Amino acid sequence: MFAYAEPAELIDAMSSAARAESAAIARRLEAVAALFRSRKCDYAEAGFLHTDVYEAVAAEVSAAQNISRSRAGYQVEMAVSLYTRLPKVAEAFARGDIDLRMVQIVLARTKNVEDDVIGGLDKAIAPKLSRWMRLSKNDLRDRVDLWVADFDPAAVRVPPEAKDNRYFDVTPDVPGMAFAGGLLNARDAAALDQRLEAIAATVCSNDPRSHNNLRADAAGALGRGESTLTCECGAEDCPAAVLRESAAQVVIHILAEQATVDGDGDKAGYLPGFGVLPAEEVRAAAKTAKLKPVRLPGAEPEKGYRPSAGLKDFLQWRDLTCRFPGCDAPVERCDVDHTTRWPFGVTHASGLKHYCRTHHVIKTFLTGVYGWRDEQRRDGTVVLTAPTGHVYTTEPLGGLLFPTLATPTAPLPDVEVPEDDPDKAAMMPRRRTREQERRARIARERRQRIEINAERERQHQAWLAATYEPPPF
User: Fold this and answer.
1) Do residues 256 and 281 make contact, with C-beta atoms less than 8 angstroms apart?
2) Which InterPro entries does the protein's record reference (predicted)?
3) Within 10 Å of residue 318's Cβ, how many Cβ atoms?
């Protein structure tokens, strides 16, 4: 496209594309905000009194954009906040004057501003934002905070304490490997560091691994409840061999074809939460693992509401994740859902699948004209119809990776299902809605800021009193 373009044309194209990108994102968020307003009215009229509108709209956004529930939920919160509290900032965004980075920072720093004040702040800062585009994240944050302090001093965000930011993540990396790391309490980190060093030192000096490799392997031993490593020097009289301790009872599950385990095939396995596992890693794990075949379910439905251990095992490996469009919550955090509600739907693989708790609640309680409908095929494919009539199809991840798990199971009998209880949606179980949680957080943080400001003023007055010298007479 730009093979023969002049530099000036490239600069113009770049600038135009950046503005168009911002305008397109603004239009998407405006549509999300409008959907939220519409659904809020719809659910109120239908009597869905305890429905969390944020979660319900996030489900539609997740399916429409094929994104996760958390990303969809963040998008709904951002869109609603932008178009209800900062319409002037939204206009600048739609014109392409500012980008998404600026919008996110402005939204974050103005979260605690009272509703009766936010309009004036919006009008004051919106014309200035285009000139602030060049500022770094920290400088932009400080600039917005100054304006927030002028309009609503109690609304200036309170920095979280360092201890509240601690975390430890274990996430997949390249096939067969994972990243582990985070921010720990200093004493805990020191203890962990010493523990890794102690375990790494249990091999002899001829072990071929580097010190970093040994520390990484020591982390694995720690996870298994072991206090020593197996030395890889290869010597029969290795002095470290006598130090070897057995592992504690730690269980991980790996899904693989029998041919891979036997060495007759090289199809990768699957480690839940970490993705594909190379064939050689599967065979290495199989040497000391307990092997358990995944059995296909029988033709006859089970009698109880809860599936048997064998059927649940099959369903977990077939699905691997929540079956709602865009949701990747692992089955360990999901409920088994009867596609045709119990007791009319039978307990059988052809009519069972996994939904995370949020999507299970939405499917079960948000019914009728504004609700979701789902149907299930014998190979585990789920077809969902959204309140708007849009249709989304999801296939089981385990069945995609290992086609045997997608073998069609037995057909189910046709049954008559009575209409849902019209009051069921109104009793949708909730702890607190996102709006209630948002207001509680804002109130808590405003109290903290008021206390901080009062203490600063007290210290300032004390300093004035200590340094005051009366005039001579």
Assistant:
1) no
2) DUF222, HNH_nuc
3) 29
